[in-house]
User: Fold this.
Amino acid sequence: MIQRKQSLFLLAVFLIAILMIFIPFQILLTSGESWNITLIAGNSWIILNSNMYYPNILNILIIILSIFAVFKYKNRPLQYKLSNIIALLNIFMVGLFFLLPFTNTNPGESIKYAFGAFLPILSMGFAFLAAHFIKKDEQLVRSADRIR
Assistant:
């Protein structure tokens, strides 16, 4: 039953979480240089601090839970709870992106937020849509049980 709407939304959450690994979420502007900061930092490990581990852990949890939820289509209450947990983890990731300093900035440096910082908001919307359609399916099944 992977062709159901909620499964497609959960697959979209999975794909967005994979994209968040590679798309920069902050741009550090120094004197004449700019550094793209991604979850896997590439060649700019020097400017990062230990706060980078928290969004990585959240992103890995989102990836694992979204794939697990896709294949739990026979257990709709669990799938509903998992999709709400995924949305909550995305809220935490947005908070981490905008509240934690990921770089050791000096007075002449500034930080801009890139497109990747807003991807968890899109992912959160897909997780809420998946939860909505899972709930509609559960209500449909319960109403069919009452008719019999």
